[in-house]
C-alpha cells in the first residue's frame, strides 16, 4: 500500500514535464480489462487479453467500451498473448509475452480474415520461433531483454519489437509469415528509453507507431523515413501521452484506423481503469518540427554538422554507437563542430518541449 501511495503522489507532481494530449473515448469492459493488443480492419476494432485470458478475440464498441462480438481460436492457448496485427489476408496473434525470459514455446497464431469474419469459432496456423541470440533461459522476472509485446506486419515479413526490462531499449526481430518453426533474426535495435508494449505499421502514412511506458509516463514513438530493411535509420520521434489520472497509464495496444488516426488502449492497474483512447497524428507536430534526415547536413559529415529549421531546441545530444554520450549543448547551437570525433556512426538527439527526435549520421 505504501508503494502504491507513493506512485499516486508522484503522479501528481508537475515534474513530468509537458505531455501530448490524447482523447479518452471510454473505459473498457471488465471482460477486456487486460487488453494487450489492438487491430482495426473492416471497420472493427479488435483486442485480446494477455496471460491467463481466454483464447479469443473481442470486437470493441468504441462508444461504450463493451464487447460486441467474440471469436474463439479453437486450437490456441493464451499463454501470454501480447499483440496482434494484420495483412491483406491474415490476422497474426503474438503469444510471446516472456516477463521471466525463460519461455521456450514462443509462437504466433495465424488466422484467415475470411474465417474470422465468417465464424465465431476458427482455427489457426502456427508460427513457432526462438531468438537467435538467446542462450540463457534462466528465469529472471522483469529482468530480461527477451520479453516482447509489439508485433507488426511489414511487407512479406513479421517484426517483433521487444520489451527490454534490463536496458530500456527495443530489439527488432524478423520472422516469415508462413507456418513453421524458425529462429527469429535480430535485424535492428534502438533506444526506446522505456518499455515498448504495442506496435502498428500504418501503410497509408508509411510509419510505425509504438506504444509504451516508462515509470508512470505513457509514451508513443513514431518511426518514419526508414529504409533498407531497418527501422531505426530514419527519424525516431517520441512523445509523452497525457493520460488522465483516473485511468491506467499502462498503455498496451495501438493500431491505425486511417492515414492520421490511431487507437490506443491501456489495461487496468492499481492506478486506474482499462480505457480506450484516440490519437490524431497531426497533433504530434510533424509540420512544426519536421527534422528529417536531409535537414541535418551534410550526412556523411566531416568537420561540421548543421541543423536546419526554425524550431527552437531545448537541448542537443550526440551519442556514439555504443550508447556513450559524446556531446551535449543546452544552448542548442545548430552548428556543431565534430572535427575531433572519431570516424563512425553517431546518433543525434534533438529536444524541443515534449518531443525528442533522433537521427543517425556518419562521421567521415
Short description:
The chain is mainly beta and 364 residues long.
Description:
With 364 residues, this protein is mainly β. The protein has 2 domains: 16-281, 5 Propeller (Tachylectin-2, Chain A), CATH 2.115.10; 293-363, Immunoglobulin-like, CATH 2.60.40. It contains 2 helices and 29 strands. The chain has helices spanning 2-11, 113-118, and strands at 20-21, 23-27, 35-41, 44-49, 56-60, 67-73, 81-86, 90-95, 107-112, 121-122, 125-131, 148-154, 157-162, 170-176, 180-190, 195-202, 207-214, 217-224, 235-242, 251-256, 261-266, 275-280, 296-297, 304-307, 315-320, 325-329, 335-337, 344-352, 355-363.
| Estimated radius of gyration | 21 Å
Distance between the termini: 55 Å
- Proportion of residues in helical segments: under 10%
Oligomer: single chain
Q: Unreliable stretches, pLDDT < 50, 5 or more residues?
A: 1-19, 283-294
Q: Can you identify the CATH superfamily of the largest domain?
A: Glycosyl hydrolase domain, family 43
Largest sheet: 9 strands, mixed
Overall domain count? 2
What is the overall pLDDT average? 87
CATH architecture of the largest domain: 5 Propeller
Number of helices: 2
Number of strands: 29
Find the CATH topology of the largest domain: Tachylectin-2, Chain A
In terms of DSSP E residues, the strand content is over 45%
By secondary-structure content and strand pairing, the structural class works out as mainly beta
Determine and state the CATH class of the largest domain. Mainly Beta
Overall shape: globular
